[in-house]
Amino acid sequence: MSGELLAFFILSLIAIAGGVMMLNLTKVVHMVIALVFTFLAIAGLYVLLSAEFVAVVQVLIYSGAITIIMLFGIMLTRHDDRTEAKTGKGRQWLVLASVIAFFAIMFYGIRNLSLGEQATTLHVKNTEQIGMLLYSKFVIPFELVSIVLLVALVGAIILAKRDDKEKEGESQ
């Protein structure tokens, strides 16, 4: 087993474990931390794919900025921190079987995948290729995503302020 394959399996298990932990944890801040582990593992997978630029963007934007925005959203909004009823063992076994089946299907599909000649040049100047496409062909979707993120942040602030005003009105 080569080192690259071993790194792939370790990073994949970390990403899957982070996702499963995010779904099963009860405290919101712990969920965000599990999500950070998933984001970092995915960045490691990008490095294995020779997509260093995408890996750095993954760490900066998702592990950094998106996580900070999620934490601000948690802090600015009111939420009940009650623990929910635990799910039964049958449901947990069903989820585990589904994850294993998904992994087996993906492994079989990727193992028999042939990318042809096009995939051999993807790692050559990938940052330049991404920049050229991003600022020529995909400039409008790029700007629309930034506007959607800004609107979401402003909306979270407005909702948090409205909740504060309602809380002040109830206490008086």
From TrEMBL:
Keywords: Cell membrane, Membrane, NAD, Oxidoreductase, Quinone, Transmembrane, Transmembrane helix. It is a multi-pass membrane protein. GO terms for molecular function: NADH dehydrogenase (ubiquinone) activity; oxidoreductase activity; quinone binding. The keyword Ligase does not apply. Its EC number is 7.1.1.-. InterPro entries: NADH_UbQ/plastoQ_OxRdtase_su6, Nuo/plastoQ_OxRdtase_6_NuoJ. It catalyses: a quinone + NADH + 5 H(+)(in) = a quinol + NAD(+) + 4 H(+)(out). It is found in: Cell membrane. GO terms for cellular component: plasma membrane. The chain crosses the membrane at residues 6-25, 32-49, 55-77, 93-110, 138-160. It is an enzyme of class 7 (translocase). PANTHER family: NADH-UBIQUINONE OXIDOREDUCTASE CHAIN 6 (PTHR33269). Belongs to the complex I subunit 6 family. NDH-1 shuttles electrons from NADH, via FMN and iron-sulfur (Fe-S) centers, to quinones in the respiratory chain. Couples the redox reaction to proton translocation (for every two electrons transferred, four hydrogen ions are translocated across the cytoplasmic membrane), and thus conserves the redox energy in a proton gradient. This is NADH-quinone oxidoreductase subunit J. It comes from Exobacillus caeni.
